């Protein structure tokens, strides 16, 4: 290949503008999943992130008696800003970790993410492919309780079940429960737990290709502040003569957009300003591609957290199969023995009938022979009698 320096204007330098216009015309889409126990401020944080009453104020907590397992609720929103259209799919998971027994409560979430991969795979594999919605989950915000004691077993199990299927970002809910020093110590404890359990979270520094030096510095800042300690608020308060979004306490005011107070602004920059497209690309080129490769090679998806149950079920299946096989084998042998007896019986009957027939046939031949002899003698006798009379 050769490199040429153009001496005049050609025009392909305008390609980025063409891509920009097409992207703006088509609009953008993003699917965000939020997971965490009830009461950690998920709805408030989502409203704060997108400056909209996406979830109504005073949203009722789900009743344990109504929901016996984790539910999946998807909400599609069309958001407009400066003539840019964003289709936002919000996936909520009411019921997660809200029960006395939370064993495998994450399975409906894992199944949902897998089903969205499968739906996309089926649509793109059609002979005639028309436009279809991309429902794949691009990012999962996992809300960690501000208990100050590190990750619980449920937190570890959930994140390990999802970390190879979605971009996972852990956040500390209600970070205003800590002082600054307490929050820093808690972050260090959580990061240690994440490393010790080999949990893969979204890495801001893993792929800096296409980022300038300023962006690389920002990505490093994102990484250094993980997991993000966030505070959400749907209310405005007055602080130093300014109207801000925040929370007012007897000891002071928390400004959710002040990086000295919490990491809400960092999280907002990650999701919307800097890494929204990067997370979509990572899902499509790596995580979904792994799923697609397995589908094409005929490998069924496996969930490591389900292996013990699968092994038990396989053992049960083997036992049932062996038992049924032995029963069928016994029945088959019994049928063969019965058939042999029937065949022997019918063979004897046939032999007896053949002997009877042969005997009857011999008697018939003998009677026929006698009859023929008598007939000949009779004819001769009649003939001789006629001659004598003449």
Uncertain segments are 60-68
Mean pLDDT across every amino acid position:
82
Shape: elongated
- Head-to-tail CA distance between termini: 139 Å
Number of beta-strand segments:
9
- Strand order in space, largest sheet: 2-3-1-4-5-6
What fraction strand? 5-15%
Query: Over all CA atoms, what is the radius of gyration?
Result: 42 Å
Order of helices and strands: HEHEEHEHEHHEEEEHHH
The number of helices is: 9
The largest pleated sheet is described as: 6 strands, mixed
Structure description:
With 390 residues, the chain is α/β, with parallel strands linked by helices. Helices cover 49% and strands 14% of the residues. It has a six-stranded mixed β-sheet, with helices on both faces. The chain has a three-stranded antiparallel β-sheet with strand order 7-8-9, with no helix packed on it. Strand 8 and strand 9 form a beta hairpin. The longest helix is centred in the last third of the chain and has 83 residues. It is elongated.
Question: Concise description?
Answer:
With 390 residues, this protein is an alpha/beta fold.
Write the layout of secondary structure elements.
Elements: H1 15-26, E1 28-35, H2 42-49, E2 73-81, E3 84-92, H3 107-124, E4 139-144, H4 153-162, E5 168-172, H5 180-196, H6 213-224, E6 228-229, E7 236-239, E8 242-249, E9 252-255, H7 264-274, H8 276-296, H9 307-389
Parallel strand pairs: 1-3, 1-4, 4-5, 5-6
Antiparallel strand pairs: 2-3, 7-8, 8-9
